[in-house]
Amino acid sequence: MSLISALFSGVSGLSGNSQALNVIGDNVANVNTVGYKGSKSVFGDILSVVLNNGATNMQIGRGSKLQSVIQSFGQGSFESTSNALDLALDGSGFFITKNSAGGSFYTRAGQFRLNDAGKVVSANKDILRGFKVTSGTAATTLSDVDLAGVQSAPKATTAFTLGANLNGAASAATTFTSPITIYNSVGSQVILNMNFTKQSGSNTWKFVASPSTGTVTSGASGTLSFNTSGQLSAVNGGALTDLSITINYASSTPPASSQTLTWDLVDSAGASNGKMTGFASPSNNNAFVQDGFATGTLTGLSVDQKGIISGLFDNGQTQELFQVGLADFLAPTGLSRKGNNLFAESAQSGQPIIGTAETGGFGSVLGSTLELSNVDLAGEFVTMIQTQQAFQANARVISSSNQLLTETVNLVR
Q1: Which CATH superfamily is domain 159-290 in?
Q2: Whole-structure pTM over 0.85, yes or no?
Q3: Is 303 exposed, middle or buried (0-12, 13-18, 19+ CB in 10 A)?
């Protein structure tokens, strides 16, 4: 009897709309979940029977069903944070993580932190994957983003520029010292004392280089002469030229490679660079620049739009360490949800396309930023009202069919 079919059609409506209400509830519950992607219910009708010898104008359905739940991967809003490892994706792609069992997962939730082993992990302890950067070149294979034991290697000083005035009015035998801080190949700090002595009868000063450790084997001494304007006019009694000083550290502790320093005195045109002067004013040190540095300990991190994680070290240096790996899929709506903001590859999604930010179709990475849930709360409430009305209407179909069936039973009275 068609009234019985109407009952079951109403039941199917109740079932489908209650499931749709569950989807809405899930969306609303995750309105503050970082990186969450909302879902949408898709309904389909159920065909029961075709009457009158297959006539297409006599097809009767028997209700509806929840056909599928489609994930929406629209861009969420952004929130700035104080943690450099809070990452957000502006555009397509997913962060790649690995769990303790070695399984790969994909997520848009970029709340990452360093764990006690120095690895970058998510809130549920999955390890972020990326490409290690060595000497400015990123590796071609994915690995765990591991920052344990990272330090900045020292760089030996190769050149220095001393800015000083040697008093042209000083009497003969007057001395003045310019202490210069340099670094050798193992990062040891060395104080190179440039001891100046005024020579008699001219505005000429003799210098002697004396390091706090090691021995000067070449360029240990020489002279600087100044003209009547107080500008450097001669080096070692001859033409203006840069000077070279070589220091041997074989007997130092710890020993280091022999070091050759270039004392920058002239510019590219061969004239004095104006850093060393012989004015008639008290001798003083006013500037010093050198290109070496000691080893450095990691003090902070930064992430650029290409997903490159750089270390900030206490020796003032910045070094590229890793580039965050990204994945994308031909059909991201086919990904399998695994909870904890994670997705897994499935037959419907296709295999992951691995790459880096701002290459191909991948978006950019934003450091110190989180992508918020893309759930539109106002839209969810409107959908909730529609779903509630549909549920109530299907309940009314059941109650109306019940009343008609009762009237039918009462016909025999």
Answers
A1: Flagellar hook protein FlgE (2.60.98.20)
A2: no
A3: buried
